[in-house]
Amino acid sequence: MQELTHYINGAHVKGQSGRFADVFNPATGEVQAKAPLANVEELALAVSIAADAQKGWAATNPQRRARVLMKFVDLLNRDMDKLAEALSREHGKTIPDAKGDVQRGLEVVEYCIGAPQMLKGEFTDGAGPGIDMYSMRQPLGVSAGITPFNFPAMIPMWMFAPAIACGNAFILKPSERAPSVPLMLAELLEEAGLPKGILQVVNGDKEAVDAILDHPVIQSVGFVGSTPIAEYIYGRGCSNGKRVQCFGGAKNHMIIMPDADMDQAADALVGAGYGAAGERCMAISVAVPVGDETADRLIEKLVPRIEKLKVGPYTAGDDVDYGPVVTAAAKEKILGLVNAGVEQGAELVVDGRDFALQGYEDGFFVGPHLFDKVTPDMDIYKQEIFGPVLSTVRAQSYEEALKLAMDHEMGNGTAIFTRDGDTARDFASRINIGMVGINVPIPVPLAYHTFGGWKKSAFGDLNQHGPDAFKFYTRTKTVTARWPSGLKEGGEFHFKAMD
Ligand code: NAD
After folding, report:
1. Is the pTM of this model over 0.85?
2. Residue 238 and residue 258 in one domain
3. Ligand 1 touching residue 206 (CB < 6 A)
4. What is the pLDDT of residues 457-484, one digit of tens each?
5. Which terminus of the chain, N or C, has fewer Cβ atoms within 10 Å?
């Protein structure tokens, strides 16, 4: 069995702690590798290497730093098939989804090539007589990122691309369930010309995370994962004086108005609800048709589409709609919640509980489920299921649907399907959720906008990628400079223009 490594100081380094996590092939259920789980000393070694390397990197001009990212984009494209295959093998998602994972990260790298423009700073000529004032954006030093299993390429790139572009060194602690692609990305960046020690990958679990949160040299921590861990990391990181941004779980509602194009809405729901086995933070997990007649029409359109979904391993070809979930524990949790939904009185319209795939009996496959008549007090409504389960909550009016989405504690993404511009505009304006789709089911902002939820889906002030990333990974220094010409009148400085 393959023993994976850390990537420290430009080399693959074996784990020293003696602790490992099993890395599965979710399609077969086999353990295909083991990932080392770093201890405090291993993390500290990476931090001291990062701190040394960062000084030279920060002194490298932004254009040269950007050129490394340019080359990195070429290498990502060159190795796209290899990366996608490794990603699918550990995560279970289809090859087109895996390529999308790499591609959406790559687009953030492309955006970060604009670092020289983003880091220019501000200048006020003549803030007073002989006085100039300017603000610079300087790197923080050593930053760290802790990432989830569900986008093993995209989310690390969301973090390390801007961090590196800004002149920081970055320590990535990827999910122990999908560690291979992050290691490959670190190798590719070095091939692109990144100096050793600027991007290091330290595999691990809570022990490594706590070591990151407590290390005094690490200046900032980015996290993406489930809400309870996001809250924990935000609290501990902030109390240790770090700059922290944490992005948590989701329960994304899609409201379907009576005037919506019902075929379009049903197609969108099937893609957004079941794609990647529902393991997306922007998946739609709650459909909210407005009016019983709309609900009946929607369910009628959804059922045949869901029954046609092809569930299988990524090796079965590009017409597979979705693959297995990530672990046996994830499968068990999903089916447990489905059973709770039935017990609590929801109507299970499509029941995937008996789903089995010949030849892959030990894989972590979960059939698609559709619930109707779900109510807000049920566990399947309150909790993030993170599986191929769509719940329908019937609302009797637009206001009721809006209130439902607003009252949920999560606020990552949402969507409305309607032909009415007025309703759509009202929805976008009033909803207390960070990312909104209008006739778009998964409104993931592109790299040059920012990504982030509200409420319990995010902790911290700034979003990911887009201009916010350049703020998060730099700090502002403002210089007020006075030159002798300002001292002309009798040697005394005059602040006239500033009075
Ligand atoms: P997770 O919270 O289990 O793990 C995320 C990271 O935290 C991993 O690196 C893991 O090693 C670490 N971790 C786990 N338990 C820890 C603990 N007790 N102490 C310290 N660190 C710990 O999340 P996951 O299952 O890998 O990912 C799925 C979750 O991520 C879902 O809730 C999903 O909605 C969320 N997610 C959110 C976004 C977003 O942008 N809001 C994007 C993708 C995924």
Report:
1. yes
2. no
3. yes
4. 999 999 999 999 999 999 999 999 998 7
5. C
